[in-house]
Structures are given as C-alpha cells and as structure tokens.
Amino acid sequence: MYPILTVGSVAFDSIKTPFGEVSRVVGGAATYFSVAASFFTGIRLVAVVGDDFSNEQMQVFEGRRIDLAGLQHVSGETFRWKGEYSSDLNIRETIYTHLNVFDQFRPILPESYRPTPFVFLANIHPRLQCEVLDQVAAPRFVAADTMNYWIDGTPEELREVLSRVDALVINDEEARQLSGEANLVKAARAIQQMGPSMLVIKRGEHGVLVTREDGFFALPALPLEGVADPTGAGDTFAGGFMGYLAAAGEVTDTTVTKGIVAGSVLASFAVEDFGLNRLVQLTPELLRERFAEFRRLTYFDAL
Ligand code: AMP
C-alpha cells in the first residue's frame, strides 16, 4: 500500500441545483479527492486556505488518513466558487471563481512528502500542479485533472502538465474542448498524443470510458433516483480510483478496472446529498454493498 500526494483546491462552495441551495460550504477538488481516497490509503495534501477557514471547517479532514503538513494557512480569503445546475443537472454554469489565497500560493512540500510514489494533481492552476510535481523525488504514477477554466485560461501551462503525466481524468465536454475533436475516441487519441497514456473520461450519468494505449474499458454509472448535487463527483471518482490503485500498489489492467469501479462507487454516493455531506458519513460496509450493486448491474453470462 502506498500513500498519495495531492495538490488542488480547498474551497468554500455555493451551489444551486433544482433540489436546493447551499452557501459557503466546504468543497474544493482536493477536499473531495482526499476524503474519497482516504477510504483506501493515506493522503498527503498540498493546498492553501485563508484565515476565514476555521477549526470547524477543518473537521472534514479529521479522523481520516489525511496528512495536513502541506496545508498552508495564510491571511486572506479561501478560494471560492459558485455553480448553478440546469433542471436535468447535466449543464452547470459557473457563477464565479475567486482564486483568492491560491493567487499568491507557492507550494513547498514538507520533506516527508517528497518520496511519494503516487501523485494526483487535482484541479487547480497548472503552474501549481507543475511546481508540486517538480518537488516529488521519483513518482511512479502521476494522474491529473483539470477543467474548462484552465483549458481556456492557461493552455500552455496545461500542455506542460499533460506532457508529464501518466493519466488524465477529465469529463467528456472538457476532452472535446481540449482536443478540438467532437468524437470522444478521436478526442482521447489526440490527448494521448499530448502525453498521458491513459485517459479516464467521466461522462456523468452515463459512466466512465477509459482509453489506454491498446484498448478500452467502460462502466455505466449506477442508475440513481435521488441525485441532489453533482458537485465534486469527478474529484470523488478520482479519489476512489487513485485510492484503489495506490492501495493495490500497482497499475495493471485488473487494478485499473477495479479502481474504476471503486471511483464510481464513491461518486455514486457523493451526488446523493449536497457538498461533502454524504461522503463524510460513509463506512467500508456501505462501500462494499454498493460495489456488489455494480457487479449485479454489469454481470452477464457468456453466450
Ligand atoms: P467538479 O464538480 O468535479 O467539477 O468539482 C467541483 C469542485 O471544484 C468544487 O468544489 C470547486 O470548489 C472546485 N473548483 C471549481 N472551479 C475550480 C477551478 N477553476 N480550479 C480549481 N478548483 C475548482
């Protein structure tokens, strides 16, 4: 079992969906990722929060295998993001993104973080993703996430990240945007040319498509009646996926397949309530039950 080093946003989110609205709740890509991945292995978190992030808000990390030596507290305001979803939850509009303390943030890894073999560059400025990667001694498997904000705003820095990672976890619209290809398979092949040999394309309620050098793997999402808030589903998925891989200690066809199921299990819970509410209540028993549901969903006999 190996730990995972991650860098990404820790945030205050405001979210509006057809099922309700919350304001200034703890969120952020690295938060969702860390909470999800910590069900499988230890996490080393690199991020920054402002002096408005109180002890009460820190509780989301407590009692979990999340090392906070690399979480800086500085004066200023924590990263803030607001999103609003359409009636079928498939379209999201970003109302604002305030980088705040991330604007001046320079990550310096604690010495104890440097030898971490599994690295996940969660969603944040690609320059910060590179600065963190520069400080890792000999990474064995590096995956990254990004979003339209960085694809549009910092394309060159993002290209550098892509040239340095083994896997990219990205949603379907962003894969099309990044590659300029409407067809997802062509989009995946074009992005593979930019660096990552594996692409994990998140397709929301339609599941996940993995493209590797020599083939595909796909998994549907669990059909759910009670979806309340899709925020963080992608980061949670990435947490389950990477957490499983790092716990297994190797990246093979088998561990990638099971990792995709693990990520889908975690994401299926995350969307059932607002923010991190559902994730922080999960137990290994609940995860095992849903793993079995995925098996029933996808099992069929040979012809
Ligand atoms: P997802 O729903 O997986 O796209 O992730 C939503 C999370 O990403 C929210 O908790 C936000 O705080 C965070 N987020 C939104 N925009 C950005 C951005 N430009 N950079 C980093 N994190 C972001």
Describe, in plain words, how this protein is organized in 3D.
With 303 residues, the chain is an alpha/beta fold. The chain has a single domain (4-298), classed as Ribokinase (UDP-N-acetylmuramoyl-L-alanine:D-glutamate ligase). It has helices at 29-37, 55-58, 126-134, 148-153, 155-163, 172-179, 184-193, 233-248, 253-270, 284-298; strands spanning 4-7, 11-17, 20-27, 43-49, 66-73, 79-85, 92-98, 118-121, 141-145, 167-171, 198-202, 208-212, 215-219. A nine-stranded mixed sheet has the order 5-4-1-8-9-10-11-12-13, sandwiched between helices. A four-stranded mixed sheet has the order 3-2-6-7. Helix 1 runs parallel beside helix 8 (233-248), helix 8 runs antiparallel to helix 9 and helix 9 crosses helix 10. The longest helix has 18 residues, at 253-270. It is globular, with a radius of gyration of 18 Å. It starts with a strand and ends in a 5-residue tail after the last helix. Adenosine monophosphate (AMP) binds at residues 9, 11, 13, 27-29, 81, 97, 123-124, 147, 149, 231-235.
Please render the helix and strand layout as text.
Layout: E1 4-7, E2 11-17, E3 20-27, H1 29-37, E4 43-49, H2 55-58, E5 66-73, E6 79-85, E7 92-98, E8 118-121, H3 126-134, E9 141-145, H4 148-153, H5 155-163, E10 167-171, H6 172-179, H7 184-193, E11 198-202, E12 208-212, E13 215-219, H8 233-248, H9 253-270, H10 284-298
Parallel strand pairs: 1-4, 1-8, 2-6, 4-5, 8-9, 9-10, 10-11
Antiparallel strand pairs: 2-3, 6-7, 11-12, 12-13
This protein binds adenosine monophosphate (AMP).
